[in-house]
Specification:
Strand order of the largest sheet: 3-2-1-4-5
Shape: globular
Largest sheet: 5 strands, parallel
CATH topology: Rossmann fold
Distance between the termini: 18 Å
Low-confidence stretches: 1-29
Structural class: alpha/beta
Number of strands: 5
CATH superfamily: 5'-nuclease
Strand content: 5-15%
Helix content: 40-55%
CATH class: Alpha Beta
Mean pLDDT: 85
Number of helices: 9
Length: about 170
Amino acid sequence: MTITASVPRVSVPVGAAAATSPSRRRRCCEAWPQAVIVADTGAGVALVDADDSHHRVLRAANESDPDVWVLHWAILPQVDYLLAEHVGVRAEDAFRADLAAGAYAVVWGDETDLIRAHALCTCHRGLRLGLVDGVVISVAERLKAAAIATLDLRHFGAVAIRGRPALWPRDL
């Protein structure tokens, strides 16, 4: 993942007014749309960091249909940390404000996600997949995601993911 150390122009994926609508917040608990996009940590950073080389394409994809994008809770601390350490406090604050306003749909998962993540990590031990990537893959499989937004092709590109979701931005 490439993160620039300079202070970026911060980009907010969804306007605050749209993000705070009750229907936007309730969607997290209702049935997911047929074609969800599950974002991993690198894509989460790229959505916010306007200096990231993948920002424009991922931001355009997000803005074209923000209601189908899903963030698993496990990526949130990683995105927050990377924004704070490598991008800047403005970007970190914007991300947390968006989360609080409901700009992103967050999936909290269940025990089946952890069971599947464990199986993936065990099966792909040589990759050192890690729990977060395993959970992102598990959620994408469970929700029958159309795509996973990821910059981590080393891990996501090496795993045979059920349903064969596209890997964005590679497959856009």
